[in-house]
Specification:
With 87 residues, the protein is mostly helical. It has one domain: Winged helix-like DNA-binding domain superfamily/Winged helix DNA-binding domain (Arc Repressor Mutant, subunit A). Helices cover 43% and strands 5% of the residues. Strands 1-2 form a two-stranded parallel sheet. The longest helix has 11 residues. 23% of the residues are buried.
Length: 87
């Protein structure tokens, strides 16, 4: 059975190590569709699975983007706790 784009995206995001981030575009490329950054954003917005660290996906300009579990403040706090120093 062929893996859906959503499943590929979730698999890529699961592999982002603690303390690291990828952009929406990088996730899209690793999932096989380099021009699908917006689709990755939609998938992340709908993701509430605790095993998928969607807070580790950021915009290409280095800004955070939204976070469906508490907004950008929660996303920033999680990344800071993991040692990410983008801000």
């Amino acid at each position: 059975m062929k893996q859906s784009f959503t499943d590929k995206v979730l698999a890529v995001v699961r592999k982002i190590p603690k303390g690291k981030v990828l952009t929406y575009g990088q996730v899209a490329a690793k999932a096989g569709s380099p021009r699908a950054a917006r689709a990755v954003g939609s998938i992340m917005r709908a993701n509430f699975r605790p095993d998928v660290p969607c807070h580790r996906v950021i915009r290409s300009d280095g800004t955070l983007g939204d976070y469906n579990r508490g907004g950008t403040a929660a996303k920033r706090a999680l990344l800071k706790k993991e040692g990410v120093s983008l801000f």
